[in-house]
Amino acid sequence: MKAVRISGFGIAPVLDELPEPQPRAGRSLVRMAAATVGHIDRTVWSGAFFAHPPLPYIPGVEAAGTVVASDRHAPGQRVWLRGSGLGTTENGTWCELIDAPDEALGLLPDGLDMALGAAFFSPCTSAWVALHEIAGLRAGERVLVTGATGAVGSMTVQLARETGAVVFARAEEAAGQPVDLLVDTVGGPMLEAALPHVAPGGRAVLVGYTAGNLLPLNIAHFLQRDVALLPLNMFRRDAAGRAAVPSLLARLSDGRLKLEVKRFPLGEAASALEWITQRGHRGRAVLVP
Ligand SMILES: NC(=O)c1ccc[n+]([C@@H]2O[C@H](COP(=O)([O-])OP(=O)(O)OC[C@H]3O[C@@H](n4cnc5c(N)ncnc54)[C@H](OP(=O)(O)O)[C@@H]3O)[C@@H](O)[C@H]2O)c1
């Protein structure tokens, strides 16, 4: 089978020909239809993630496809894949035939585009957990979202509106009125500039740090303003994210939620890894066989 492999941290991925994996107890074989290229894959590739598969490895933490062999699912079943070490502690999804722990599989609704099935998990569950598990968003609250053009940001905007919140993608739009909740997906100076727009007693969920990973903290101001800084860690919140998947997939299937996806051939993983770092790109990247 064809598989993308990484031989060292930061070294460009290459397309290899590898032997097909064989069925094993506790594992499922899935014919890949689309495999996501996301920021987490870049972090693992850079060597900066807290874990990584043994080198050389097949990257990819998410995908969608059809079951070839599994003790849990019938052949032909459409599934999404994510978690249980896929692409972080063991080989991942950027290959024609994925060898995954049974626990990594979930069912995809009939008719849902496979590329969307590969790409939905991180932005949809992150936005949902940020708003509902961490922030406890209520109808009528005012919400500011930074990075609202991004995958997580745009999904946060959609889900917050669905809950009846009043949502702003830029602080200036809030017309001088403070917000109850900030969801920051950008970090660095963007987060620093957005925080003063949160009302005293409000909360800020910290999701990403593309623009910088440091935040100066004046402790006196922090105590006086009493804004709760709440981290999102989707690896720790995996169970809450997975629990939300069926209803998120239902809303993606009927178009109530929208997420853009850009396809790259499997052999162009390096281009996809580069594309997701470009300012102004829209949606998520997936590799297709
Ligand atoms: N904590 C967690 O568990 C968790 C879960 C999921 C994702 N994340 C992280 O969340 C972040 C966002 O993910 P994503 O999939 O939404 O990424 P994305 O689709 O690439 O979107 C990035 C967003 O950030 C904006 N941006 C990037 N650099 C910026 C800068 N220097 N100044 C201002 N805005 C900037 C982009 O604006 P433009 O459109 O103008 O370029 C875009 O709106 C990533 O860092 C990701 O690793 C964390």
Automatic annotation (TrEMBL):
<dbReference type="Pfam" id="PF13602">
    <property type="entry name" value="ADH_zinc_N_2"/>
</dbReference>
<dbReference type="InterPro" id="IPR020843">
    <property type="entry name" value="ER"/>
</dbReference>
<feature type="domain" description="Enoyl reductase (ER)">
    <location>
        <begin position="10"/>
        <end position="287"/>
    </location>
</feature>
<dbReference type="Pfam" id="PF08240">
    <property type="entry name" value="ADH_N"/>
</dbReference>
<protein>
    <submittedName>
        <fullName>NADPH2:quinone reductase</fullName>
        <ecNumber>1.6.5.5</ecNumber>
    </submittedName>
</protein>
<keyword id="KW-0560">Oxidoreductase</keyword>
<dbReference type="InterPro" id="IPR011032">
    <property type="entry name" value="GroES-like_sf"/>
</dbReference>
<dbReference type="InterPro" id="IPR051397">
    <property type="entry name" value="Zn-ADH-like_protein"/>
</dbReference>
<dbReference type="InterPro" id="IPR013154">
    <property type="entry name" value="ADH-like_N"/>
</dbReference>
<dbReference type="InterPro" id="IPR036291">
    <property type="entry name" value="NAD(P)-bd_dom_sf"/>
</dbReference>
<dbReference type="GO" id="GO:0003960">
    <property type="term" value="F:quinone reductase (NADPH) activity"/>
</dbReference>
